[in-house]
RNA polymerase subunit H/Rpb5 C-terminal domain-containing protein (viral metagenome), 197 residues
Amino acid sequence: MNHFECFKNARKVIIEMLSDRGFTVNDEYKDIDEETLKYIYFIKSYDIVCKKNTDNSQIYVKFIYINKIKPSVLKEYITALYKDILNNDDKIILILQEKPTNTILKIAEQHDCELFDINNLQINITKHRLVPAHTLASDEEVADIMDKYNLRAIQQLPILLKSDPIVRYYNYPSNKVCKITRISETAVESVFYRYIR
């Protein structure tokens, strides 16, 4: 797959991800023809800004076209975004060309910034036929689970790591419970609960 196709697929998955997270994605990001996309890719400048449906917070998605990004350059990007465009409660997603190093991951964590390798955004994993539906369990559901299974703490549930692809896709917070609904071939619905750590 060439670099342009990789960019095009990642852009599509990011737009779906933002919608699934409850952000309003304007048509100017969705309805782009192939020629315009090629031009955007050629000039290496593509950012997405969306507002949350429930409050006024924003998310800023920046595609970084540098193959091996230096920590100092990443810090400059993040600092400039918060200085010029974003508020402290807004979020940033950076799309990198390669898997991030440990130093880059630490910088992103310090600034509460999400990083994705462009190669991991080639398909929308939530639309795969083998991936069951994932949602956050409500407080009432958690109380029912704890009562039903006689749990003293939600940490006694099986664990779903914060690094899990689905948890990263939805950006589910730690210390919450994820409800996983599987539908079998016999049309029986099975519900599982996992503690996000």
Q: What stands out?
A: The two ends are 35 Å apart (CA to CA). Residues 3-123 form a domain with the Dna-directed Rna Polymerases I, Ii, And Iii 27 Kd Polypeptide; Chain: A; domain 1 fold (CATH 3.40.1340.10). The chain has a mean pLDDT of 93.
